[in-house]
From TrEMBL:
HAMAP family in UniProt: KptA (MF_00299)
Segment forming the signal sequence: none
Protein name per its UniProtKB record: Probable RNA 2'-phosphotransferase
One GO MF term: NAD+ poly-ADP-ribosyltransferase activity
Pfam family of the protein (one): PTS_2-RNA
Domain of life: Bacteria
Originating organism: Streptomyces cyaneochromogenes
Alphabetical list of InterPro entries matching this protein: Ptrans_KptA/Tpt1, RNA_2'-PTrans_C, RNA_2'-PTrans_KptA, RNA_2'-PTrans_N
Swiss-Prot/TrEMBL keywords: NAD, Transferase
Length: 182
């Protein structure tokens, strides 16, 4: 499977497993799962055909592990804008987590902190390199440090998804460390 096809199938899966399953007639269960055969049939009925082999390749090849397969079912690992319960237990975060963004967002973040926007949770990375890659999707990246240890001590709840993304409802500005201006 070539890279362009892999990306195309991955984006299609993200759209319909994270944001708009109803557009192709899918009904996800409360955990965000759907039968793989149902997904493939719904996609084909709406003009986008892919095989089980292509699906397996996309799931295995995705460096961010965006999707999980359990038996005959598939779901997105996180990032939903629709209501799902991923069933992730609370987790103790490392002392610091990181968030990649771009400079144009910094004033709003300084004022209101990190908010989930159109998702259910704020996404944080365990290392600066990953946060840098995330921020670079929108332009020149700026990496913020999150004092996750202090947040946790103060009662904020964290979860970690199967692909290592740390999730929390919000990060108030007092827990953020901004890089020095150049």
């Amino acid at each position: 499977m070539d890279e362009r096809r892999t990306v195309k199938v991955s984006k299609y899966l993200s759209k319909h497993l994270r944001h708009q399953p109803e557009r192709i007639g899918l009904v996800l269960d409360e955990g965000g799962w759907v039968e793989i055969d149902t997904l493939i049939a719904a996609a084909a009925a709406h003009g986008f055909r892919f095989t089980r082999e292509e699906l397996d390749h996309v799931v295995a090849a995705n460096d961010k592990k965006r999707f999980a397969i359990e038996g005959t079912r598939i779901r997105a690992s996180q990032g939903h804008s629709i209501e799902v319960d991923l069933g992730l237990p609370p987790a103790t975060p490392p002392p610091y987590l990181y968030h990649g963004t771009v400079a144009r967002n910094l004033d709003a973040i300084r004022s209101a902190g990190l908010r989930p926007m159109n998702r259910h949770d704020v996404h944080l990375s365990a290392d600066r390199e990953t946060a840098t890659r995330v921020g670079a999707r929108r332009g020149r990246p700026v990496v913020l440090s999150v004092d996750a240890d202090a947040m946790h001590r103060d009662g904020h709840v964290f979860h970690v998804s199967a692909n290592g993304v740390w999730l929390t409802k919000a990060v108030p500005p007092e827990y953020l460390r901004f890089p020095e201006s150049r």
